[in-house]
Amino acid sequence: SKKQAEKAVHQKKEQSKTKCRKARRRHINLVAEFNHRQRKNIWLETHIWHAKRFHMVKKWGYCLGNSPTEKSYRACYRAMTKQCLLQDLSYYCCLELKGKENELLKQLARICSIDTGLTFQEASCLSGRFEGSLNLYRADRYPEDMLGPVTFIWKPRDGSENRQLWIWVHPALKQDILRELKAIFQCSEPEEICISEPVTTSFQEEKQVEVVMSLGNKRKKEDKEGEKAVPVKKIIGDGTRDPFQSYSCDRSMEILRYRLIGPLSHSVLTETLKAASVQTV
């Protein structure tokens, strides 16, 4: 048809303007392209590695590896049983609370119950030595209105009465739990800050990306100057928050989380992590 013919001509024109591979693979062009492609679904830090080896799915505002492209699962099974298998769980959302320990525990007691077992006040967890898990409920509504399961980690004490608590929640539960935490702690942040909708790029941001992408047509020396003149905007956190504003509660995609499974997990951590030298004044 006439429309199909016009479409084919239009596609040929677009293809003819496509940059060569060397220009497309320049760092400034890649960053701009990757930021553009994850406006709707955020990529994890390990996205590129997974995208080459897994079938990807779009869930809860993220792009996640679902199943390996190879027909056999033997490699993963071998790693779990004899070596070490690493899973990227960074799509789990981290909610951070800071304040005096007694005040935190007083309000947190309203959204959980000792009848279900563990609470935020469990001694082994409160010291920061162990991670705890429990079910959260709407404030003063137990046993009704359950919000969902979470895990939590207290930052070890530093001698001060101020404490820091990280609560890890599934992204599907994030908004309900975050709203409840804001209510019981009377956070002053506006409600729309932590909405789960993807960020809509403004006209100026779109224009900025176009300018950055067009830099590939210039020579290499000009690219360096252009990179300074038009910095590529990096997506902050999970993309649902303004990068120019600070937040005391939502740390999604700022604190990454990995799970290691297998007999060599401890050896991998020992070889990878090095203790920092603490200097006391």
UniProtKB/TrEMBL annotation:
Domain Pop1 N-terminal, residue spans: 4-99
Cellular component per GO, a single term: ribonuclease MRP complex
Domain of life from the UniProt record: Eukaryota
One Pfam family from the record: POP1_N
GO biological process, one term: tRNA 5'-leader removal
Organism field: Vidua macroura (Pin-tailed whydah)
Name by which UniProt lists this protein: POP1 protein
